[in-house]
Amino acid sequence: MEILLLSGFLGSGKTTVMLELLDEVVKHDIKVAVxxxxxxxxxxxxxxxxxxxxxxxxxFGGCICCTLTADIVHTLNYIKDNHNPDLTIIEAxxxxxxxxxxxxxxxxxxxxxxxxxxSIVDGYRYKLLMKMMxxxxxxxxxxSDIVAINKIDEIDEEELCFITGDIKRIKPxxxxxxxxxxxxxxxxxxxxEIL
Length: 195
Ligand SMILES: Nc1nc2c(ncn2[C@@H]2O[C@H](COP(=O)(O)OP(=O)(O)O)[C@@H](O)[C@H]2O)c(=O)[nH]1
Ligand SMILES: [Mg+2]
Hints:
- By secondary structure, the protein is of the alpha/beta class.
- It has one domain (2-194): P-loop containing nucleotide triphosphate hydrolases (Rossmann fold), CATH 3.40.50.300.
- It is built from 7 helices and 7 strands, in the order βαβαβαβαβαβαβα.
- The protein has helices at 14-27, 46-51, 69-82, 98-108, 126-142, 157-170, 187-194; strands spanning 2-7, 32-36, 55-58, 87-91, 114-122, 146-150, 175-178.
- It has a 7-stranded parallel sheet, with helices on both faces.
- Helix 5 (126-142) links the parallel strand 5 (114-122) and strand 6.
- The radius of gyration is 16 Å and the shape is globular.
- The protein binds guanosine-5'-diphosphate and magnesium ion.
- Guanosine-5'-diphosphate (GDP) binds at residues 8, 10-16, 40-42, 150-151, 153-154, 180-183.
- It comes from Dethiosulfatibacter aminovorans DSM 17477.
């Protein structure tokens, strides 16, 4: 089983990105499960996804990087033993530190082939969020394998260049893609990076 960990601040577009990625994943006949840790604006319709063959587990009331570490281990072991998907996508809360989640998984679960961390950056609120919580967003970016700058439909070229440059200063080797999940811009390219 491979794991894709989605991080990024509340409202950045994690669920929207995930639903678009699931479309691609299902097209490629990849068996997939979802762990939803954040109650957000856009809900994950478990019943609908189950209909498409996607197993959905919900873990609410805390964060999988700290208060719910035992629960995420239990849930991932349950998914592995009972569904054995090729890929499990975890949507963490906006407050989660992905490096801590990766440590918990690596220290407690066997049989994980690969864990990738994808951070979703809210292009529209980037400057504001960096002003308010640089340590958290910076830690999320540092722990990422791939960064998707989302909501590019809301920002101009100059703003996008600034954000890309800022992310590259924080983590020069990280792969950065510019997307609009809502408008399906560059989502196939993002899926290719992940699958
Ligand atoms: N303008 C714009 N809005 C988006 C885009 N992607 C997501 N959103 C909106 O951002 C809000 C938060 O999205 P959601 O996926 O729930 O974010 P999450 O909290 O990180 O899971 C919703 O109102 C989405 O419709 C995008 O590409 N462009
Ligand atoms: Mg969400």
